[in-house]
Amino acid sequence: MNSASIIALALAMSTDAFAAAVGKGAALQRIHIREALRTGLIFGVVEFLTPVAGWALGTVAAPYVSAWDHWIAFTLLLLLGLKMVREGFSPPESEASKPESHSFWLLAMTGFATSIDAMAVGVGLAFVDTNIWVVATAIGLATFTMVTVGVMIGRGIGTLAGKRAEIFGGVVLMLIGSLILHEHLTKAVA
Asked: Which has the higher per-residue pLDDT, 107 or 55?
């Protein structure tokens, strides 16, 4: 996996967290940089850990499925991308469903909920030649940055931009899955 793919993957993985952060920012009475940084840190750490956990699970299974690993990575990324696009087109949450507080546990659970796709990507990455620590760090840093920014601008732009970011992230995931499949199939022909 090259640097451009890692950066694109990191940005794609952080878009759903960005969408959640926009909602968190919109729910705040006042937006303080300290709260934005705290939220970004919690989400970033969770997004760093989940692909590593997924990769560890995938590594255990890799010897049993190495003949079709590229199809697994492609399918997981395609399905996750489609899910993100579908969620991006869903109607925004109502005001009543927005969280009342920003407790650590609420942020950690929200961060985990938005990082399930990163865990699935980690499973898929176990089947391709890539350094999971570099990818997980890139995902964690991108998430930290995007969540911090999302909280800060949440009041100004609302949930509409968050939905568009989620659609974009889903499309990027599908493209990365297609590139992995293309790369493997062209190596097999050569």
From this structure: 55
